[in-house]
Amino acid sequence: MNQDNQFEEVEDKRSAEEEWESKLGMVFDSLDNLLQYYRSYGNRMKFEVIIRSLRKGDDGEMTNATLACSCTGKLSSNTRNAFKLYPVTKTVCKARVGAYILGNEKWQICSVGLNHNHELSSPTKTRYFRSNRGIQPYMKRRLEVNDRAGIRPNKYFNSMLVEAGGLENLTFLQKDYRNYIEKVMRMRLGARDTYAIQKYFLKMQKDNANFFYMMDLDEEGRLQNVIWVDARNRAAFKEFGDVVTFDTTYLTNKYDMPFAAFVGVDHHGHSTLLGCGLISHEDTETFVWLFESWLACMWNCAPNAIITDQDKVMQNAIEIVFPGTRHRWCLWHIMKKLPEKLRGYSE
Length: 347
What we know:
It contains ten helices and twelve strands. By secondary structure, the chain is an alpha+beta fold. It has three domains: about 5-130, no CATH class; about 135-185, no CATH class; about 190-340, Nucleotidyltransferase, domain 5 (2-Layer Sandwich). It has a seven-stranded mixed β-sheet, with helices on both faces. A five-stranded antiparallel β-sheet has the order 1-5-4-3-2, with helices on one face.
């Protein structure tokens, strides 16, 4: 690259920064619109955007949000082997924007940080950012039809490459294709199964009005998450809901969907069930839906403490839904990981 091209690239970068900096105080119709706008800026500047934090008010509605460079945060390596090298992805980068919600449900930018403390990605790598990769709804339908027809993913993906004119013209990778098909297979509850679940829940609710359930459907109208809490569980929570354990280590046989259980301890020291559910996948969005549904069932009374295994997405969801609840890790999981994490110090 000659000096003229380098100068033009620096000028383009500077103008992009100045264009964004002039947007301080800009108002957006929704948080999604703000996120899309900042991601577009990140694509121009060659860095990936993530949602750093979300805060809720006393009414449970979102009030503040921070969007940041994906290199924000500290690199945590104290539990790893010090003699092995790992790629550094966190550099405590301060590039971010802060926004708050206005009275008319619009979002306004209140703070902007432009400086990165790391090298930015090359233009050819921005398409691999997770935030830029996605499968459009019409393409999802095509993928599912071909999967039901028995067409192998690698064969159909190659045909899509030819049709699109190259990998650079696709918005997703073959890995995303396979992950989506695997997710659909886990979620593929037949019509009879969904009908049977709903029929059973309606019967339980007819027998006891305190029976609670909620079903979450995807954009195609298929059941993907479900939670249910019977009258005995709700009564037990009033007496023994100070400390709750939450676990998703159980799997069903047929659909391989994680079974989520809320459990408390009664005055005899015995475990008592406080609600349970089936979820399609374990990510922050799903856990937020599950926790919010369970909290609504329990009269919006959050427990004083919740115990889980060491899971980052679960921790994120707890911070969003239970901001005032103490979060602790399960001692069994800690003791189980001790030999693995400290095996280098066995002597």
